[in-house]
Amino acid sequence: MSGSITLPSPYPSIPSNVTSLGDYCTIALCPLSLAHVQYVPNLAGNAFYASIFGLVLLIQLGLGVRYRTWGFAAGMFLGLLCEVIGYIARIQMHDNPFREDPFLMYLITLTIGPAFLSGSIYLCLARLVVAFSESTSRIAPRTLTLGFMGCDFIALLLQAIGGALASTADTENSEQIGINIMIAGVAWQVVSLVLFIALCTDYSLRVRKSCPSESVNPAFQGIRRSRKFRGFLIALAIATLAILIRSGFRCAELSQGFDGRLANEQVTFMILEGGMIAVAVISLTVFHPGLAFQGKWADAGWKLGSKRHGESTSMAMNTIHQRASSTTSLARREVGDEESMHTISYPTSVIKGNVNVGHASA
Asked: pLDDT for 93-117, tens place per residue?
């Protein structure tokens, strides 16, 4: 920073040897207009979110190990870890909103955290397809997972790169480039979530119209009827909508820039960012997929090199029908043999009776 900056009274001018506002400014020495956010982050509110996300993180770890939902647990762990780090950084900003390191930490972690949470949500759709009916889905579970995880990775990468560029930019032009990249990443996440919701809705309607005896997977019949599973479906919908609302808010916020109105409204941020993510992760913890699938999470998964779409379910259905047909044929054969024995023994006794009667008459 070259030269000195004249500040309005009662603030003193910043000395010429100061190279960073964060190294010099405090709330007493500089106006909030020079801070990274034009408000003092609330200590209690940010501590509350840090505690909530930390507690949910521990519970998710326990449930993930207990039910071996490794992929889901990994996404939840990374997402919640980002949330905890982000709100700890905001707690540090409470004492000095001019410091750059806490701002960077909060900006990047809270921007990319929901992308990891979205990844966990995307993993659930493939399991649901297997649990209901693979043949009813327009897209194979393997393709669904790889496609949405690819979209999530792109969103994550764009948000991380954009956040790093925008927060470390030396010029307004460089900052705007970073902001635009971040907007592209969050917008990509919004599009992915909308597409995810559309595919879930389409699949749900197709399952409702299908004939259960012909297309629905019988191996998960008891699980599908349980309250835990139905609760999980509702929780998954709530979490998806909550992250979608949050992502829409971040798109609008970033489009206005760091000096925009939304970026400097603390209450709006605490509700539409922290609140929505809290609703999402709490829903997916109370109705954890491990509880919903009753230990069969791995059975509903897919593997690289697995059989083509719908084939495994069809083979299972055919096996059941073959076993039923074999049982029916065996029962008919046993009944036929028994009837044959009666047919043979009955005329013999009658013949003997006729012979005896004939001898008596004679």
From this structure: 998 999 889 998 999 999 999 999 9
Q: How far apart are CA 239 and CA 284, in angstroms?
A: 7
Interior angle at CA 162, CA 57 and CA 105, nearest 5: 40
DSSP label at 38? S
Question: Residue 182: its pLDDT value, please?
Answer: 92
Q: Which token pair is 274?
A: 């922290």
CA–CA separation, 131 and 223 (whole Å): 9
Task: At 77, list the tokens.
Answer: 């762990």
Can you tell me the distance from the alpha carbon of 333 to that of 82, in angstroms, rounded to the nearest whole number? 66
C-alpha 216: how far from chain center = 24
Residue 37 DSSP class: S
CA-CA-CA-CA torsion sign (155, 86, 93, 262): positive
Residue 158, C-beta contacts closer than 8 angstroms, at least 6 positions apart: 181, 182, 184, 185, 188
SS3 31: coil
Rounded to an integer, what distance in angstroms lies between the CA atom of residue 69 and that of residue 95? 40
Tell the residue number behind the tokens 């599009």, with chain if given.
191
Question: What span, in angstroms and rounded, lies between the C-alpha atoms of 28 and 226?
Answer: 59
Q: What is the pLDDT of residue 290?
A: 95
Sign of the C-alpha dihedral computed for residues 199, 202, 208 and 214 taken in this order: negative
What domains sit in the chain, N to C, each tagged with a CATH number?
1-34 (no CATH), 39-297 (1.20.1070)
